[in-house]
């Protein structure tokens, strides 16, 4: 009797946990979402297509375009151009998946979290959010520190300030272990947080100005550098073979990360179903062209083996007697990092807003200012986290555990495209009648992901190509099973071509890249996953409300459109 009574609460808790974790958010057609214009608290629709493209560019291109290009070129040689092309094409596959889902969910914030909540279940969506958010928090603090350092570099161009600014102001001064004092980074974060709290209109204007400035500087660097190119420097094109080019593509892949920020602006886009796909893909293609242009100029100006490590592009122009271009690059880096940080903080607050509405986080995160139409509480929260991290910690030492959230998020989004297209989602027997058709599809998607990880591990540790090929063949058979065994519907709006093949390739390559990350990133993935499940078990499952969260959402058009 005692044993039975003691086990009852545990079994009841486990039963509730399972039923809560496996529930999903219903997918409502865009036309069924109520839109009210005149009253209530909600976000405002101000962002047009051009704003969305600049948002994606601003999130993707930071100071890395002036540094990463040269760093990878030292190993891949002029073939770094192919590295950026391969990585860019891989990101295009992810962008196509995001573009389709952005038209299926054109009116609600949430991005990858929302897509996962609808296509899979509540717990998986919460796990995706946690992995993404840790990337965003550490990334924002790291970018703030880099921005502070570049601002100090620009200020030191003034003669009386050169070598007179203490290191603790902008470059950071280590005091004990991982602790490092930086005063300027928190100040910059406060300023950007204030801009974001004032409204999406103000932050969009700042992002547009800084992004246009950054792109113009990059174009100027490409055009001026083109006249100093010596084509003989492009020979040999791949001095260390194709493997170095492929390895380089795994490194530069993260230079394109940021286009997904456009999907998180769905609730503030004027015409989301039309503009979001173009904004996502358009911003990515612009970044691809700019990266390739910089690569060609850099490797053409200076032989790849003589490129510097810290500021290769600036040093290349200095050696050619054009120091003024190096100064311009510093200003471009400031503009680039400002937009990357601004958009990163913006995306974080919108994700917190989505979880606050769904009850997975406290309701305070769901509040929107009635006049500013911005989630001020969420915005201040993400700003505070970045301020503390950037002001007190040397977060750059944590850089090797980043990108886990992006890669897992991209993979799950690709899987969401496949599952949401299935015509028969519940009934229907799979192979042998023991597994449902949907279960069979999920097994195939999981097999593709596992094969991608296995192939990545074999490639990383120089195992025989036979093993890598075997993993690829199993993935191909899994993708073929997805294609032949499932019935797919055509979605409204933008449609990703080649489903399920393109999403399968995307999943395989994303997890292949995941295997290239530092082993501490794998540990971070597991530990954070366990912590997230614990938070969900003791808080999320009791407060989540997937059915009613949409009922309180109110949308506003921009004032100019209301006037019309």
Strand order of the largest sheet: 1-4
The largest pleated sheet is described as: 2 strands, parallel
Shape: globular
Helix tally equals 19
Q: Roughly what is the average pLDDT, rounded to an integer?
A: 86
Radius of gyration: 24 Å
Write the element-wise H/E pattern from the N-terminal end onward.
HEHHHHHEEHHHHHHHHHHHHEH
Strand content: under 5%
Tell me the helix content.
Answer: 55-70%
- Backbone structural class: mainly alpha
Strand segment tally:
4
Distance from first to last alpha carbon: 73 Å
Low-confidence stretches: 30-40, 549-564
State the gist of this model.
Helix content is 65%, strand content 2%.
Account of the 3D structure:
By secondary structure, this protein is an all-alpha fold. It contains 19 helices and four strands. It has helices spanning 2-21, 49-60, 64-76, 80-104, 112-119, 122-155, 184-198, 200-226, 241-252, 272-301, 312-319, 323-358, 376-392, 404-421, 437-460, 465-485, 501-514, 519-543, 559-563, and strands spanning 43-45, 173-176, 179-181, 555-557. The strands form two sheets. The chain has a two-stranded parallel sheet. A two-stranded antiparallel sheet has the order 2-3. Strand 2 and strand 3 (179-181) form a beta hairpin. The radius of gyration is 24 Å and the shape is globular. Residues 30-40 and 549-564 have low confidence and may be disordered.
